[in-house]
Amino acid sequence: MFVDQIRIHGKAGDGGNGCVSFRREKFVPRGGPNGGDGGKGGDIILQTDVHTDNLVDFYYQPLLKAKRGEHGMGKNMYGKAGADATYKVPPGTLIYRIPAQILKALPTAESAENPPVKVPIAPSDCEFVVDLSLENQEFILCKGGAGGKGNTHFKSSTNRVPRQFTEGEPGEEGYFLLELRKIADVGLVGYPNAGKSTLLGQISAAHPKVAPYPFTTLNPIVGVVEFDGYQRATVADIPGLIEGAHRNVGLGHDFLRHIVRCKLLVFVLDIAGSEERNPIEDLGSLRRELDLYDPTLSQRGWIVAANKMDLPGAEENLRILQSRFSDKSILPMAAAEGRGIEEFKIALRQFLGW
Ligand SMILES: Nc1nc2c(ncn2[C@@H]2O[C@H](COP(=O)(O)OP(=O)(O)OP(=O)(O)O)[C@@H](O)[C@H]2O)c(=O)[nH]1
Ligand SMILES: [Mg+2]
């Protein structure tokens, strides 16, 4: 299962209470106060981990909890601090706080019968907290409560038998929305069956499933392309788009969030129009879909992978496309046969400026 949006409930550990105690020893009458402080509650920490691919762990465990601090004890002994609880998230995870009024309208996150995979909450309705996009980045989501003070703190010349202490502070608590936007330099965008996964398999060590039916790719996959001189780029293959994707037709819309961060977009076309499609119109509708999803995407740099050059009709369509977009890089290829792949990699590198 691939989860890229999930609601969680975080509750950090409460602080331990301070202690009320007095020194009791043989030959020491009326020993003074010696109640120790309570320990601090554990924090809830999110940490990015490149080996974590999506947010599925939180589907099974939407409640994040850290241990409370222990209470203080006599003989001025401090309570032990509660252990922090660290949870792994993939780099590219955005955190939002869910406002109280939205929360009220929703079923509880913990109800086990109905774990909230698809959250009926838009990130735009929430308060943005942080973008965890770096490797091994740590963020304290909920801070553990401070420990209370023992009665030792309250002694004075006028109060030699203090019975005061303070309770530990409660740990922070909140409901959050986690949204994953994959971090990749390049995004492959195209209609189903255009050959996006075939191309990714050719340029990287990733092995996305390739098949002659639409919507083979169901989840975004990121592959790493190695260039000479140890340079590398990450390339995201997302499920095929169809018209109306921005209205959530097909699979497309939900996955467009994964290319929002890409520096370069590659439109992968079946240039032969082998499925009765017109590749030139396809390019127009793909660009329209992106613009409707997020207008900043239409300003992003793009090139075209003109795939399936081995099939009849490809040459002619390529010429039409080239004359229509004479200022653009249009790279002919037959990805399944490995033709045009080296030229494509060179173009990628050039456009990324590496
Ligand atoms: N003739 C020909 N077929 C190709 C070429 N590249 C890919 N194909 C075939 O096209 C079909 C679809 O390829 P995929 O790579 O799965 O396409 P996709 O764009 O990832 O498709 P979705 O994941 O469904 O969106 C497969 O049967 C491939 O073998 C090519 O250069 N020439
Ligand atoms: Mg695919």
Distance from N terminus to C terminus (CA atoms, Å) equals 35 Å
Uncertain regions spanning at least 5 consecutive residues:
none
SSE-based structural type: alpha/beta
Q: What proportion of the residues is helical, as a percent range?
A: 10-25%
The helix/strand order is EEHEEEHEEEEHEEHEHEHEH
Folded structure, characterized:
- This protein has 354 residues and is of the alpha/beta class.
- The protein is built from 7 helices and 14 strands.
- Helix 5 links the parallel strand 12 and strand 13.
- It is elongated.
- The mean pLDDT is 91.
- The structure holds guanosine-5'-triphosphate and magnesium ion (MG).
- The site of magnesium ion (MG) has 6 residues, from helix 3.
- Magnesium ion binds next to helix 3.
What topology emerges from the helices and strands here?
Blueprint: E1 5-11, E2 44-48, H1 56-60, E3 63-65, E4 85-89, E5 93-97, H2 100-104, E6 127-132, E7 138-142, E8 173-180, E9 186-190, H3 196-203, E10 221-226, E11 232-237, H4 252-256, E12 264-270, H5 279-293, E13 301-307, H6 314-324, E14 330-332, H7 341-352
Parallel strand pairs: 1-3, 2-4, 9-11, 9-12, 12-13, 13-14
Antiparallel strand pairs: 1-8, 2-7, 5-6, 5-8, 10-11
Q: Which terms summarize this structure?
A:
single chain; 354 residues; alpha/beta; 6-stranded mixed beta sheet; 5-stranded mixed beta sheet; 7 helices; 14 strands; 17% helix; binds guanosine-5'-triphosphate; binds magnesium ion
Quick recap of the structure?
The protein has 354 residues and is an alpha/beta fold.
